[in-house]
Amino acid sequence: MDESPEAAVDNDDLVIIVENEAESLPAEEERAKQLGGSLGLMDTCPVCKLNFHNREPKLLPCLHSFCKKCLPPPSRNLVNTEQRRDPQLQADNSKPREILNVIRCPVCRQECWEVEVLDNFFVKDSVEVPSSTVEKTSQVCMSCDDNTEATGFCVECVEFLCVTCIEAHQRVKFTRDHTIRQKEEMSPEAVGASTQKPVFCDIHKQEPLKLFCETCDRLTCRDCQLLKHKDHNYQFLEDAYRNHRQHLENMTHQLQEKRKAIEEVSNCINNGLQQVDENRKSVTNEIKKSICNLIMEINRKGKILVNQLETLTKDHEVGLKKQQEDVSHLTRHLDHVINFTKWATASHSGTALLYCKRLILCQIHYLMRANSPPALPPAGPRSDSSVNVRSIKSCQPNDNGCVLDTAHSISHIVISLPTFREFTGPEGKGQEGCKMAKSNNSVEKKPK
């Protein structure tokens, strides 16, 4: 939303009251510590690395902000889904199809419609509203030039007024129906929300957005509320700000609880990766020790076992690393939304908070619905090889039964001729299950 020239407010005329400067300093320092990590991200463009001051900051639905010049161009175009589903609109060629541009956030790669991009009034307010305690020591009348101390506040005009201006305000026909509140009735949050630079309606250029339509869930001006939003439930800006700020704080607390659960899943995955690595090393050493005591054929089988082990552990490790990447991405997304919501709720910017409330709630609900990936249990490596390593390892040179058992466990075994004769006996029994090789020193025996 572009601001009209009437929306310009001099910073010299904007002063906020504090009861005690010494008491306000610790509160500001504590808030600065809480938001210190997020403010650097919120007030600086991630593309050009420059401050948003006078650079028309834009806020994407993913809650990342960019300068207007750094806003990414549309990555693709799509036809409006309502037009695609309506057969009458498809048959009516006289009506042009609405083309919606899709842009992708350079930070999180989340896509959104270009029409969903909003002005970042949080940053605009932060650079335009005075923040030093010296400027907040007193509140003067914003209607006259006498620098008289203000005693009341006009809700419709969003101005502090002195006694004389209040009387004139109630006497003039155009402003006699305005709501005048005493300065003492205004809470610090309401004062902060009411004294910010007003945002004017797109339709009624002279009317500021000072109402919040609860039915439509959006900011409205007085004329829009009386005409387009007639009979809708609405609240004044400061009242809606207090209510919805508390709701967003509660939702942020739920996100923090979910982040703790995600962190536990991440720790479990790290432990699983470590256990897989230990199992791989342990089994690899055992296999290598067994291979050293086997003949050439068993040595070849042992190498196959190692390769199979590496394959199994690698697949499991790849799965765990993929889960770790997903969890890290979700954690970064949770951190960003939590920091942004904390920063938004602590900024005392009622207009900006309500203006962007739907975007914030959309991200919060999106993250609340996101499923936490369960941690895979560390799978101990195993081998499907038909070689019985323990039986072969315990085989003695003259143990004929062991050699026969081993022969049934592998494809074939080569034994010497004397050993073959011991197997078959003097009568030559069992020779039909053997295949004689050309060598005179050995027989290749293949079990049936």
TrEMBL record:
Name all B box-type domain ranges: 136-189, 196-237
**GO cellular component terms?**
chromatin; nucleus
> What segment(s) does the record annotate as region Disordered?
426-448
Q: Which GO terms describe its molecular function?
A: zinc ion binding
**Keyword hit for Plastid:** no
Residues annotated as transmembrane: none
The record, for Pfam families, names: zf-B_box (PF00643), zf-RING_UBOX (PF13445)
CDD domains, alphabetically? Bbox2_TIF1b_C-VI
Q: Which UniProt keywords apply?
A: Bromodomain, Coiled coil, Metal-binding, Nucleus, Repeat, Ubl conjugation pathway, Zinc, Zinc-finger
The RING-type domain is annotated at 45-109
- Where located? Nucleus
Q: What is the superkingdom listed in this entry's lineage? A: Eukaryota
Ranges in coiled-coil conformation: 234-268
PANTHER family reported for this sequence: TRANSCRIPTION INTERMEDIARY FACTOR (PTHR45915), TRANSCRIPTION INTERMEDIARY FACTOR 1-ALPHA (PTHR45915:SF4)
Q: What is this protein called?
A: Uncharacterized protein
Q: Which organism is it from?
A: Coregonus suidteri
